[in-house]
Amino acid sequence: MRSVIFLFLAVGLLVTRVCLAHDADGRPNWIAEGSYKGSHGVHCCGPSDCEQLGSDEVQVRSDGIWLTRFKELVPFEQATPSEDGKTWRCHNLSGERRCFFMKYGNT
Which residues contact 11 (CB under 8 A, 6 or more apart)? Predict the structure, then answer.
């Protein structure tokens, strides 16, 4: 009986951990849970402060990464490799960029 209870709890913990990989809207918790900080040393924010960008919204240029929706240039040194292979822009309440995550090698 103890082994059945232990197995049930172990499976429950695994399922919970997998479910926590993303929030209810599919936003990645790895950004919130990580120790990522933007260029000004401020924490990159939580999942509700980040939005995923499509490949059509991102252009790699010689002077940086142009975000077409925001009309903003992200210097290469301010781009962090994305853990999930997607492109994310995190911002503060006023919409100012805090962090930018992108899979290198893809636009």
Answer: none
